[in-house]
Every structure is written in structure tokens, then in C-alpha cells.
Fold:
Amino acid sequence: MTRSSERTRTEGGVGHSPVRPDGALKVKGEFAYSSDLWADEMLWGATLRSPHPFARIKLIGVGGALRIPGVHAVLTQADVPGRNRYGLEHADQPILAEDIVRYQGEPVAIVAADHPETARRAVAAIEVEYQVFEPVTDMDHALRPDATVLHPDNETGNCVRHVRVRTGDPEPTAPVVVTGEYSVGMQDQAFLGPESGLAVPAADGGIDLYVATQWLHVDQKQVAEALRLPQEKVRLTLAGVGGAFGAREDLSMQVHACMLAMHTGKPVKMVYGREESFFGHVHRHPARLRYEHGATEAGDLVYVRARIVLDGGAYASSTTAVVANAATLGVGPYEVESVHMDAYGVYTNNPPCGAMRGFGAVQACFAYESQMDLLAEKLGMDPVELRLRNAVREGSRMPTGQVIDSAAPVEQLLKLVRDKPMPPPAADDLREMPGGVSNTTHGEGVVRGVGYGVGIKNVGFSEGFDDYSTARVRLEVVAGEAVVSVHTAAAEVGQGLVTLQAQIARTELGVAQVTVLPADTNIGSAGSSSASRQSYVTGGAVRAACEKVRAEVLELAESPDARLEDGKIVNDDVVVADLVELLGDKVVEHTVEWRHRPTGPLDSHGQGNAHVQYAFAAHRAVIDVDVELGLVRVVELACAQDVGKAMNPQAVEGQIQGGSAQGLGLAVMEEIQVVDGKVRNPSFTDYLIPTILDMPPMPLDVLELADPHAPYGLRGVGEPPTISSTPAIVAAIRAATGKALTRVPVRPEHITETEETT
Amino acid sequence: MDFLRPTTLAEALEAKAANPRAVPIAGGTDVMVELNFDVRRPDALLDLGGVAELAEWEVDDDMVRLGAGVPYNRIITELGAKLPGLAMASRTVGSPQIRNRGTVGGNLGAASPAGDAHPPLLACAAEVEVASSTRGTRRIPAGGFFIGPKRSVLEPDELIVAARVPIASGPQQFAKVGTRNAMVIAVCSFGLALNAGKRSVGTGIGSAGPTPLRAPEAEAFAETEIDGLWDTREPLPDSMVRRFGELVSEAANPIDDVRGTAAYRRHALGVLARRTLAWAWADYRTGSWST
Structure:
């Protein structure tokens, strides 16, 4: 690490927790989200969606809709100016459906009108004649040779990707064997700010799009292709993002709003409603996982055989990368000699699934951690002891052959959560009972359980992807004060990246006054705000740009070995020059494209240095369950995580708490229920996310074991806590109830064995 | 869409008679959700928020006449002693924001089988007071008010004016199962009222049938079994409490839906019935209720 990195002396720099610029605004309801955008004379867009999961469009009649006063445009696939295909990895998804619709909610036509209500009425007035087909809804059936092929162009039928990992003995045996089959329901990111944006046609024939997204440049590329415009004529600016969690990686209304704006010559705003939002973005892949673990009598893992099937739904989205994560991380943070892993991502007529916090590692972790508990039980061992015995550490070899070349403190994390004092028994207060203020128990039937989970996640984009970010840093004197501005295209999605970029500039340049400019496409790509990567990659780019600025300043001061501190150039604790005086009218500006070290592809045996960095978290869950009613209250959720460097300690804690809450949601309540390809609960009335009464206190241990390869030694924070909280909670419910509980979310029916239908 | 905003009950009733398809709206916690989700698109909204007569409660003999527009948070803070069952149910409604806006009148108007106010109204034999500008006022026993999912006996020209709820003369309980510890629609719910004066037992089942239901056989069984115990205040035999749970379970007529299975609802209602009877009887034994 460089000397400058270790300095955190500048107030509000790296390692501090300065106040977020958006914090008070959000709390007071004054923050401008993308749904608050406004332009004079703007029109409102609306989308007609398929009611069927699988059908042929025989006819679209737009006449009735066009005749409604106030309607300015009704567009279908025939109106897509460029390529009617998009997709993060495979361009397999139409901007507007052509002859076939493949999921319930697929966009078929779009409308612009002078009022949102008029636009909705016009959507209802569009006549579509469908020939309805039997949908393919079961992920295992979809892989069978006789299944209806949903994308005839795909060479591998309904299989989007199959990743196999083979290492060690191909036919291993072990004295102790446990097998299990697990399933994971479809979780939603449940961001609170629905898909929305404003497209403004420009005089040069291009378009300006203000939108809530996770990756401006990947949107720009896809929008330009669909509109048949050169990329530079599609200019994007990030609007206020109300949460993302992966759900804004794919396009939603971007192209639609631009098409309507270009067609009408007016600004067009689109805002999805809450129900529509459930159809407007991808979800977490549901999964079926079959595992076989072999171990010695002493509890050393000998082999893991696993088959993971992930339901990608109607279009590929990021399924290929999700499958790779499930396969390469699917054994967990354990040393295993022999691994025989097959992970599949499949096409069905279910809602498309793609990126969500944890990204393939979540599903696998629920299964392998459940297996570890099963194995511990069979061996008569303490479940933490079994994990400690097999835990990876720095220098361990992953099943892919990749060696973990920085801290992997799995053992320490497990011990930290294990050794925490136990929370006291529930007080005589309804809020401390399972069921809460709904008054279902005063202690009757309540049993306490404790469970553990530990997980592993890759940070950054993998498998040889050119993963970079671009930052421009400018230093100048404004009104007698040294001021830094930082410009990137990195999306602030609520995680605190704007705050962090300013912290880095303060630390590197010793300047208090830092402005972070709005993210837009006037600068090069920052990559996605996903994969726990933005602090690492955009943080790295901002630091690198600052270093160039600093070098130029020091050259100007003729003190190449000096430091910048509190607006001064300081050499050996002696002030050499004042920054304001030194700079005068001079502007020092540098733009840097920064990459993390390269990764490589996986070969046909799943071998390769595919990942940039590994991150780990462990949880201990203490729960009270009412065994008669099947209701659960998580009493306490202890978490220990290594973050390399807590760049902003408060934000780190926020990530751990929020991630753990999302894992809690998957454990006990969050599921999009899909029957015959149709979503049954597209609302926050019936898609439940944890409230403050569901989320327990979280004792945290944050380790800072620097990764020498990463800027400031940091390790991606956002995803690991989502991964291990789910299995820890389910393990605790198992411990209290004795039930097998092989599916998440665990429902009261599973605990009380009242699942049968009538 | 027309927006009608009467300021007196008489005006409101006339407006309803003149616009029988107008949808009354009080707190808006149900109606606005339906409008937002485009589930319904009424010709007119009849906003009752400005009608002062609906926003108050008064004691009328041994009843509380609860104005249809009194929000849940006032029931909780002002009527906990007089109407304990309804107050307990009110505590389980939504979030603080929803309890500030939502009303019993609105709950009755929506007539959802999952309405939280319904089981306690059934359990304590409340009446629903409705009125029309031409035909005057009528009172409908809560048990006869609901006729199907989201359907009631309310005529198109009528408005719900008040709930007439007997002041408790014995312990009351309400319990609701949801898959989240707050802000949840009932998977199933149960209200129980012991009336020490009349020596009667009232029940109300929520979210386990096409309408909110009573469990008449469970009530009759409990009244018979408890008959000699009102004076002695002896503990209820476990077998009796268990049987009561079974009878409540049998009275339900649940379906499988997105919130839970029918089998779970039957099972859970049995548990809730047992527990609430045990709590209520324990309260009766230690309380100052006179028979």
C-alpha cells in the first residue's frame, strides 16, 4: 500500500463516516427520485403487457387506442428503429414482442399520452389476439429432450448455460455420506423506487435519457442499438435511484421512453406502478439443488457431488454468470479434495430471472450450509466445529483450481459469531414474541433455536471480463479555496458511492471541498453498480486519477516526495507551499481508466482463475419459533465479515444490516409465487419484506484484513451478508423444530406440516 | 371521475342516493390501493372525510356507538377499556400511518373476509347501523352483514353510519396469524368475547371463509361447559379447551390461496381458539368481572 493510502487524517476522508449528501433529503422525503422527473410539455408513457406466459400474437389492433383524445402515439415492434433485441449477455429479448410472447408481463406495445390515466386507458384499448400455448414452467422438465424449445436459435435447447466443475477423484467414496435436495423460491429485489425515467428528444436527432439504472453505459449501448443511433447521440444521466439490488441491470422502460419521445418529438416520462414493477424487472433465480457430501469419520470433507438447476425464465438476462457463480462457489468456503459439480441455467416461460444481490451464491449457500448441518448431525459433531475443520484459508485451492491469494478468515469469522454472548430470553412483551403485536402467543409453543451459516462470494466481474471504471478528477481554486471535482459514470444506488468518492479525493488530495458531479455518459464507463465491485473499481479509478493530479501538483511544487494535507504541500512535516497559492489559476485535471487485475475463463472442467477477489461473512442466528403456529421471530442475527478496509464504517454497517435483512426475507417470507407461469402476488400486500419488527438487533464484527491487490486493501461488502444469513436462520428453525426444512422461504405450513391442499 | 365531498351526513346520504354507484371513501387505505392498482374505476368517489357526525363515538346505554369514520388509532387510545377486543384487533391493523387513516366503517364497507375489525364485532354481537336518505336507518347484526367475499347487505343508496358495539362485560381477545410480525393481512384471525353478565361466549373467525364467520357450535359448547364455572371461577379443563379449538377449526371454511393453505388455516384457528380462550378465562378468574 502506498503511504498516502494509510493516511486518513483528512476529516471526511477514507475510514471516516461523513454525512451522506442524500441522507437528510431522503429521510425528509425531499430527495428527487427518477419518478419525480418533470419536463414542460412532457407526455406519459405506458406499456401493454402480455397476460399470457406463452402465446403467439396473431393480431394487434391499435386503432381504438389511437382514437382516444390525448393519445400521441401507439407503437409496436414494427416501430423499433434498430435492432429489436437486447440482453446483458445474450441479446435474446425483444424490445417489444414480435410473434411470440414468452412470459406474463412481456411488453407488447407502448403508448404516449398527455396524461398517465389517458395512457393507461389507451393501453387497455389496444386489441391483441393471442393464440395461447401450454407454457413450459418446470425447470427440470424444460431440460428434457421432449420439452418445447422456447428459443429455437439457442443451440443447447432450453439450457442457457451448463457449467461443470471437476476436480480430484472422478469416482470418490467416503465412509460418511449425506445427500439432500433443496429448493429456493423466487425472491424479488423489492426496491422501493419503481422503474422510471424521462426521455427528451434533442435537436441533433439524438436523445437525452434521465433514468434510474445501475450501469449507464450498458444501457447506452443497448438503447443506441435499438434506436439505430450512434452511441454518442444517446446521452444518459443518472436520475435518483430508489434501490437496485440487481433489478436495474437489465433494460426496462429505457428504449420504450426513447422511442415514444423520438416518435412524438416531446419529452416522455414513464413510471411503472408497484404491480407493474413486479413484471418490469428480473428476479432472483429459483433453484433446485441436489447435493451429496462425503466425509471421513473424523469430519474431513472428501468430496461433493452437486447438481444445481436455476430457472432463468423466459430470457437469458445474466443467467450465464449466475450459473458460473453457483458452480464455482457451490461448494462453499470449504476445502474439498474432489468436486463433481454441474450447474444449469434454463429457459422457461416463468418471469425472467437475472441479477440479485448474491447472484448464484445465495442459492448454493442455502444448500451447502444445510448439508454441513446434516453432516454434522450424522457425525455427531458440533456444526461450527465441522465448518472450522474444513474451512478455507489464505492459500487454499478452490474447486476451480484458483488459489485464494488474500485473507480468507472463515475460521475467525465463525468463531467470532459463535463466541458472542447469547441474547436473553424474550421479555414479557408481545413485540418479542413470534407473531408480534398480532397476539398469537404469550409464550405458548415458543422454542428457541440457534443456527450458523458462512458463505463465499466473488467480488467484481469474472471469467476474463474487461472490468474497468473511468474517473476524472479536477483540482482548481474557486473563490480562494481549493476545490476538487470528481466525475464518473458510476451509479449511486443508495449504497453511498457519492460519499465514498469524495472521501477518497479528500484523503488523496488533502482538500476538504469535494464535489461529486452527476453521473452521466459524458465520461467513460464505470461498469455496473453490482457484484460488490464499485468501491473497488470506481474507488480504484478515483484514487488513480487523484494520484495523477497529486503528482502534477507536487511537480509544480518541485517537491515530488511531499504530501497533500489540509490544503498544504507538506514535506517531512514541513509546509512547503500552500495549495491555493501554488495553483493560482491553474487547473489540474486527469482522467483515468482503471482495471483490477485480469481474470481468466473457465475451461471445460470448470478450472481457471475466474474470480478477482473472494469475500466472506458468517452469521449466527438466534430465533424463537412458535412450533404450533409455525411463526418465527429472529431474536438476534450476529454477523462477522471481513471487509479488508472499512472505507466508510457507517456505510459498511448499513450494508451488512441491509444485506442480512434481505437474507432474512428469503429465509422466512419473501417469495414471488408463480403458478402456471403467472405471478400470484405482485404487490407489497402479499410479497412481504421484513419490517423493523422482523429485523433483530445485529451484533457486528467487522474485520479489516487488507487485500494487497485491492485499493486501500478493501474487499467488496454488499453481497456476502445476504448469502449466509438465510441458511443460518433456517438452521436455527431446524434446531428448534426438528423439521428438515429443505425449501426457502420457510412458511408456517412447512413447520406445522399443513402443506397439503384441499 | 366525480369527487363528492359532503360535509354533513344528510348531504352524504343524498349524494349516495343520487349517485348509487359512487364509492364511499373514508381513510382510503383500501379504496386508494384498488384505484392505484386499477382494480376498480368508479364513476364517482364519495369522500366521507368531511362528515363530522361519522368521526365521533358516544356511549349509548350499554353500547358504544362508534362512528364509521373513527380511525383505528383512536379506538386503541380511547376505547381500550370499553371495547377491548376491537382495540386489540385495531392494534394489528397495518402500520401507524394506516391506523391513523383506516376506519371500522371502511373495513365493513370493503367486507373483506380478512378485515381485522370483523371477528371482534362478530364475537361481541355488534350491530352495523346503516342509513339511506329515503328509507332511514336500519341496524344489521354483524353476523348478518356479510354475504360473500367483499359483499354485504348494504344497499346502493345506503351508507355505513356506525358500529354499535356492546361495552365489554367480560374479557375479550383477538389474535391474528400473518407471516410477518407486523403490517400483514391476516392468514387467519380469531376474536373471542366472554360475556360474564349474559354468561355467553362469542366468536369471530377471519380470513377462513367467504365471509367472516362465527363458530356457533363452539360458542354453544363453551357456554354449556362453562355454565357452572362462571361463579366458581375454576380453571377450564384442558379437554374442554381442546374441544373448543376443534369446533372453531371445524366452523371455518377456508381455501388455499397465496397467503396460506386451507389446512394451515384450520390448524392455526384451532390453536388460536385454544389460546385465546385460556387467556380470556385466566383474565376472568383474576379480574373484577361480575356475573
